[in-house]
Amino acid sequence: MVTLLVVNCGLCVWVTWCFKEQKFPVVWPVKVEVNLLTKRPSALGHSGPEVMAFGIKVVLTLVRVLVGYARVEAVFYLGLTLTLAWQYLRWNPHLVNWVNCLKGGVSVAMVWCSVALVLLVFHPGVKQQDMTKWADSMTLTLLSGLVPAFLLGAIASWHMIRYMTNTALTALATAKPDAPLKEICQNIESPKDVEVIARCCRVWEDRYNLDATAVNKARQVIQAGLAMFPNSAYMVLLHGNFMIDVLGVSQSGSRRIEDARKLDPNLMCRFMMFVRHQQASVGIFGRLP
């Protein structure tokens, strides 16, 4: 396991160097999706939380190797699993909602396991001679709570997406005509929230055509996001991708992507731009299945 982690981390370092140098001799190790309408379960709307989650999983794997004290390990596990659950439940990075629910459920189940471990190793009020019974009861408690914990996490993920989307769309629909656009959606805290809410455009009338009302709602959300975060490279890039994939305005969308290049984009935004450039060079600025 440690060897696999070392190899994986080495691959990440290599990809980071490619980002920095803007040279990508091999693209296959990195899966970045720039099409807002893709139906691939692995597609990410924003990759930051998934990168953080990967780092947390690496540390989770190494805790047992590096610490060696059961109580300290249990506390570390609890803190790390709570952080992991927060990443998935707060940001819901996947474009396909059921994947967010799945990962949210698994992360909360991991928190439940960590809670059970903390209770097991600290055994509050349990005498040493009763430890065997305590261990058996905690094992039973752990197993009986796994499914409810998973369901709780899945429902929390679904509710978070629904709450963010409905709150923003309601605010836009009921806003006064003269209200500043950047002050309407009070629940939006970052461009990543804009991306999550803009997924409301993913409503199909049939296999090939989007619902026009849903697209218009997403357009309003992105306009509000641009007003709130005018200097965000990711926000401008999201706007460009929306224009290309959803509105079908390739030339204007490409210009927006070039605008994002001027706003000091981070490494992942640069790679998304690279993917768009590669698509443009082979003439596939279209909708992917």
Describe the structure.
The chain is 68% helix and 0% strand. It contains 10 helices and no strands. By secondary structure, it is an all-alpha fold. 32% of the residues are buried. Helix 3 runs parallel beside helix 5 and helix 8 packs antiparallel against helix 9.
Could you give the topology of this structure?
Elements: H1 2-21, H2 48-66, H3 70-91, H4 97-122, H5 131-174, H6 191-198, H7 212-228, H8 233-245, H9 250-261, H10 267-281
In short:
It contains 10 helices and no strands. It has helices at 2-21, 48-66, 70-91, 97-122, 131-174, 191-198, 212-228, 233-245, 250-261, 267-281.
What is the share of helical residues?
55-70%
Describe the sheet with the most strands: none
Multimeric organization: single chain
Listing every helix as H and every strand as E from the N terminus to the C terminus, the arrangement reads HHHHHHHHHH
Radius of gyration: 22 Å
* Category by helix and strand content: mainly alpha
Contiguous low-pLDDT stretches (5 residues minimum) are 284-289
The chain-level mean pLDDT equals 86
Q: What's the total helix number?
A: 10
Beta-strand percentage? under 5%
Specify the overall morphology. Answer: globular
Tally the beta strands. 0
- Cα separation of the termini: 35 Å
Transmembrane segments: 74-89, 109-126, 138-161
Signal peptide: 1-18
InterPro entries: Tiny_macrocysts_regulators
Keywords: Membrane, Signal, Transmembrane, Transmembrane helix
